[in-house]
Amino acid sequence: MSENVMLEIRNYSKSYAEGKKAADNVSLSVMSGDIYGFIGHNGAGKSTTIRAVVGVLDFTEGEIFIDGHSVKTEPMECKKITAYIPDNPDLYENLTGIQYLNFVADVFSISASEREERIRKYADLFEITDALGDLIGSYSHGMKQKVAIISALIHSPKLLVLDEPFVGLDPKATFTLKEIMHEMCKQGTAIFFSTHVLDVAEKLCNKVAIIKHGRIVSSGTMEELTEGHSLEETFLEADNE
Amino acid sequence: MNKNSILLLKTLLLSTSQRNIFKYSTDKKKKKRIVWGYIGTTILYAMLVAFGILICVGYGTYGFIEAAPVMCALVISLLAFLFTFFKTNGYLFNFKEYDMLMSLPFSSSTVAACKFLYMYLKSLPWYLSISLSMMIGYGIYAHPNFLIYPLWIILAFFLPVIPMLIAAFLGFLVARISAGFRKTNIIQTVLTMLIVILGFSLRFIIEGVFKNNKVEETLKKASDFTENASGIYFPARWFSDSVTKGNVLSALLLVATSALIFALVFFIVGRSYRNINSALKSHAASKNYKMSGQKQRSVRQAIVFKEFKRMTGSTTYMTNAGVGPILAVLIGIVTLVAGFGRIVGLVVHDVNFDIGMLQPAIPFVIYFFIGMLATTACSPSLEGKNYWILQSLPVEKKTIYQGKMLFNMYLTVPAMALSTLCMCISAKVPVTDMVLYLVLGFALCCFSTAWGCVCGIKHMRLDWENEVEVIKQGSAVTIYLLPNMLVVMGLVVLVVFLGTRLDHKLLALIFILIAGLLAGLSYRWVMSMCRTGD
Predict the structure, then answer these.
(1) How far apart are CA B468 and CA B346, in angstroms?
(2) What is the ipTM of this complex?
């Protein structure tokens, strides 16, 4: 494995007890500095793959490596350098925003000064600083999403995995998140995210994979994949095949 | 425990701390509810303390005070086992913040162990209130050495650990087996029910063993059963030996065994924790639905159906709500098969009396099981984040709660009727009395349903993290459950006593009137809360 491969999924398959395959022989690589889009229909297998990558979901077939560490055999090494933002963040509703962020910062042993600086920076960017003292239960979906994003950025991960990160965010926060993703990518962070918003994927990603019924039907750099067409056209074409 | 385990445990506790909500919430209604919750909980603690002291008074008065520590250990162990077993599914597995926690750098065994310790710490005050009150009672009658008190206090923290670990491990096995099946939820519920029923039957199995060993004469003494049970359940013996004989070795054995079992259980659980949760939390959509003729239901029946699906969709809810009716039916059938006299004989050993005098207690004994948990006590809170669905529908609140109450009636009345019929036939109750007992059972079901709904609405809590919080330990359920059970136990004794002086039919009629009146008042209360939007 080359040095800058941050995420490598090799022949990953996931079957349910019902016998159906949610992911079938999925393979892809995300390099440092990549913004890798993962697109597909509802139920195509995006979240199942993402949950396996971040060590939440067990799998029997295939291998997943993060910065050379196996998710199966070295889960702690992988988790220490990864951040995950789920599509519907289930945070502790009875903690305040700042209590939750401090919890995550403590888990990653972030010093008091560093965490203060990062929380202030991102909370200001997402315009949520004033609300950090309120209980998360009183937040809107978008505000919870913002807290989840800040908690993911607090430890400067090497791999950022996001599941539908733009759902529920207001236009300004969407723009801010895209800017942050660009900035992180420049600093060498690998970003792997799923989305339904093809316009965003087209503008943001340098690589894309299209998943259909658990199988990768198309993947590569944006240019290779679209060949001069729009991503929407490419996606619909792949979907009709 | 490493730094991260302590951090996780602290956060788990903080995330459900009422004090934290009170401190940071701006909702005055919520704050008021928290204060009332604290008052209610204090009353319940006082009741438990009284229960503990009264047990010792009983033992002390009749000269069996030396059996009090064993009794204390057994009561706490039994409660700890049952409460943990019912909660394991929702706390250790299938909890909603699983994805968030498991994506953080915590090992599987750390998450599982912290979840267990959270359960332990949350229930510890209940066990301590029984244990420490019994220590006071024991102190009054036994006048032990002063050193016994600190020893008792220290061991009180360890007493619930082993039964909780056994319950958690059984819950893990149930989840492990269920994870391999398609209908995970159903398999899990059935296995959980089987273990609970086995747990309830254990007492009779143990007694059967003693009887076969010709030691039944020894059971005549009140303290001998607990003594024998402690011979089987060693931690109770160790506790008793420590606090009665000052045996430090026994105390060390209890502490060391608890720690050893803890390490062992979470080593095993940790190994397949992710695998089990993956199986429990991910299911493939069958995608084979064919649009066919749809049925139209009335609004109330639609709510009943929704309640039914809510219950069957959750193992925790189904086991807690279903265990009472199932036990009632089983006891009814067992009584019918084995004979009323034989079952009574198992409970009151070799005491000679006319078992006919127990007939008036039949509806209350059945109600003890049926009324264990009214779904109406937790279903308003269980709406949780989905509460908006009901709120936004063009349906009056009273119709919603009528639907919820109707569902509880559908769940309890058939079980009550079947169990009453079985018991009455077995006890050779005259037909008129049997009809009256059925009516009384129905009135009690109405009361349980409506009173449960009062508690459910008054103490509705929608911001729960885990449904166990409202099914097993919510204020609504606690306020409904504990007084209800204690009053019923008292009523069983009262009704048997009154039955020796009054005609059984008259007695049944009196209680039908009382239960009917209480049910009516509770129902009116529910309706009035619906009008005022409480």
Answers:
(1) 34
(2) 0.84
